[in-house]
Amino acid sequence: MRTFIIIAAIIIALILGKIFIFKKPESKDGPGGGSGSAMGGGKSKDGKGGGPAPAMPVNIYVAQPENINNIVYASGSISPNEEVELKAEASGRLVTLNVKEGSFVAKGQLIAKIKDTDLQAQLKKLEYEENLAKQIEARQKKLLEINAISKEEYEISANRINTLSADKDVIKAQLEKTVLTAPFAGKIGFKSVSEGAYVTPATVIANLVQMNPVKVDFTIPEKYTPQIKIGRSFKFEVDGQEGIFNASIAAIDPKIDPNLRTLRVRGISQNPNGKLLPGMFVRVTADLNTESSIMVPTQAIVPVLKGKKVYVMKDGKVTEAMVTTGLRTDKKVQVIGGLQMGDSLIVSGIMALKPEMAVKVKQVVN
User: Residue 7: which residues within 8 A CB-CB, separation 6 or more?
Assistant: First the structure.
């Protein structure tokens, strides 16, 4: 019973304290609340408090032309200037194989010789027959002058000489096929046959590679096609070789790869020391041109559903401008369209900006 009385007393004390001790103080402006309702202050005519919002300080970048280098980086490989598989035109046994693997050969140098004994015998036989035919033709001519024979008989003997001469040309052509010479100067690769082997026109005897100059093949995106010109120089590097090598564009593929949307380009580089080997991987750096254009900080570009936009300060307020971008560097982006020289581009507080919002210049950045 005593416990119940104590609890009731505590509850009564809390109620009295709420009423008399913790009573809510009245406003100094009177029982009606703030002076805004009694005196008509603290709110603007449109019902919003505080009057016009203060201008937001922002950093400004002034759009101006800059010279930019249109540099393209690509990868490719080195190819020999000329390369051919050396094959004989005739079948037969190799009696001569003048090949030292990895050695340099001059244009026209003998590479291989096929046995031609039978052809030489046929040629000798035709030469004997031709000599006899010429003697007969000479006698027939004298007889024709005295009308001892008919003109037809003389023409038959003269035609015999021409026929034998043609047969000799055929044999000589076959003899030429038994000799294999270097079509151009270069280095001989590994040989595939040995002297004494029987070869056919399908047999590869060795490879011949011309290594000075060398070709540098690489691909670039199709958007750079207008800047690629025959004769334009470029630089490249290769793994395992120190220094930078120079080359010039010698040929451009007349069509775009429809799958990769790239353009094949071929350059020529001098290789007097033989440091550049066919098949090497190269890293190409091509400086296509230097042009003047508007470059803006990367953070100023805002991607949107229909493209890209920027915020520009005009007459102390924010305006939006849709832009078209081009090249990109590590810090800036080229603006091809949508901006004018001298426009004040806002580059800070981008996420808080809204059209027609009041702003002021805090700092002009470069």
Answer: none
pLDDT tens for the 366 residues of the chain, in order: 567 677 777 877 777 666 655 554 544 444 444 443 333 344 444 444 555 678 899 999 999 888 777 788 899 999 999 999 999 999 999 999 988 999 999 999 999 999 999 999 999 999 999 999 999 999 999 999 998 899 999 999 999 999 999 999 999 999 999 999 999 999 999 999 999 999 999 999 999 999 999 999 999 999 888 888 999 999 999 988 888 999 999 999 999 999 999 999 999 999 998 899 999 999 999 887 766 788 899 999 999 988 999 999 999 999 999 999 887 877 888 898 999 989 999 999 998 999 999 999 999 998
Measured between alpha carbons, how far is residue 49 from residues 35, 53, 72, 359 in Å? 13, 10, 57, 20
Alpha-carbon gap, residue 114 to 91, rounded angstroms: 8
Domains along the chain?
1-52 (no CATH), 57-67+292-365 (2.40.420.20)
